[in-house]
Amino acid sequence: MKAYNRTILQGVSLAALVLLATVAVQVLISSTSNEGTDLDHQRQFNDSYKVFSLTLPSEITFCGEPVPMDKLDVRERLDRELLVNTYWQSNSLLALKRATRWFPMIEEVLRENGVPDDMKFIALIESGLTNTVSPKGATGYWQFMKETALQYGMEVNGEVDERYHVRRSTEAACRYLKEAHAKYGSWALAAASYNLGPGGLDRQLERQQVGNYFDLLLPEETSRYVFRVLAMKEILRDPARYGFHLREQDRYAPYRTRTVSVTGPVTDITAFATRQGTDYKTVKLLNPWLRDAKLTNKEGRNYTLLLPAEGFDQDPSKEDR
Fold first, then answer.
1. pLDDT averaged per 10 residues in sequence order, the chain, 321 residues
2. What are the φ/ψ torsions at residue 258 (nearest 5 degrees)?
3. Would you state the pLDDT for residue 34?
4. What is the C-alpha to C-alpha distance for residues 256 and 246, in angstroms, rounded to an integer?
5. Which end of the chain is more exposed for a tag (fewer CB within 10 A), N or C?
6. CA 139/CA 267 separation, integer angstroms
7. Predicted pLDDT at 285
8. Residue 243 burial (CB count, 10 A)
9. Quick one: DSSP state of residue 129?
10. Does the global pTM surpass 0.85?
11. Checking DSSP bridges between strand 65-66 and strand 257-262, what pairing results, if any?
12. Could you tell me the residue ranges of all domains in the chain?
């Protein structure tokens, strides 16, 4: 009996050893298999994903003023902004799409006011061509603070805020930029003033005793400002060079609209919209400067509202202003 039990125990021990050896071999095989899979995955990643440095333009201008590309820091500052905007693909794609809708109107206002076309990119880098509000309260495509907006003739109150009005805010931006250009004699410095404010720029010009934006040491945001404009100008001028490919149907077409003049109160914008054959949301979409559900208009001002033209939803291919 003892010999029999000993034989059983030996068999069990042998079976256990075989089992352990089998498990060890499976673990080793699994580990080797995983290692191979990881290596294959890494190779596939390296073969498929490429990130390239960019070739900078040899010459570039801002509002007709040459950018000194022979300066090392100028080249590196432009390189930074081109890289940021090339590889921040979603932001630049949205810029390309929105520009088709809004740049024609902005370009028209700039042209009417004798402001260089390159200044349209200020609205793009300030707001992404959206009616955004900054943490400090700067509002609209051109990011006006309330006090500055009032100074440049815009109406800002609880019912009407023309900082949200693309045409009116562009006209105000033109007045600011023309005044700054007359003061500084440079569109690049005018743009820097738009970001930093005339007081801040004046202090830097006095301290450093230079008269060129590209020779100034400025706070980082202002130091990057003109280069951000230049980067977006380059990308929108030649999207394919920077890897962006859009079909015409991918771009956001201008709204098809008609206009209506309002010289009295509108007590209920919803009811007004219904009478005009549209709805509250569409009226607010086309006229975001209307900030309430009513327009009291005690002074009897003449407001021009945009309303949807026939086919607004189906074929928004042209804006009538």
1. 46 51 51 68 87 92 96 97 96 97 98 98 97 96 97 96 98 98 98 97 97 96 98 97 95 96 96 96 98 95 94 41 32
2. -125, 165
3. 56
4. 22
5. N
6. 26
7. 97
8. 13
9. S
10. no
11. unpaired
12. 1-50, 61-250, 257-308
For the structural domain made of 61-250, what CATH number should be given? 1.10.530.10
Q: Which alpha helices (DSSP H) does the chain contain, by range?
A: 2-48, 72-87, 89-112, 120-127, 146-151, 166-184, 187-196, 198-208, 220-237, 269-275, 280-286
Provide the token pair at 229.
């404009």
Q: Which residue has 């071999």 as its token pair?
A: 25
Structure tokens at 44: 């596939």
Sequence-distant (6+) residues with CB within 8 A of 210 are 216
For residue 109, give both structure tokens. Answer: 């206002």
Residue 47 pLDDT: 87
Strand intervals (E) in the chain = 61-62, 65-66, 257-262, 303-308
In whole angstroms, give the CA distance from residue 248 to residue 92: 16
Q: How much is the pLDDT for 41?
A: 86
pLDDT at position 17 is 54
- pLDDT, residue 14, reads 53
Place of tokens 């077409």: 253
Question: Contact 268/135 with Cβ under 8 angstroms?
Answer: no
pLDDT at position 320 is 34
In single-letter form, the type of residue at position 198 comes to P
Q: Are 131 and 140 in contact (CB under 8 A)?
A: yes
Evaluated on CA atoms 159, 104, 139, 130, the torsion sign reads positive
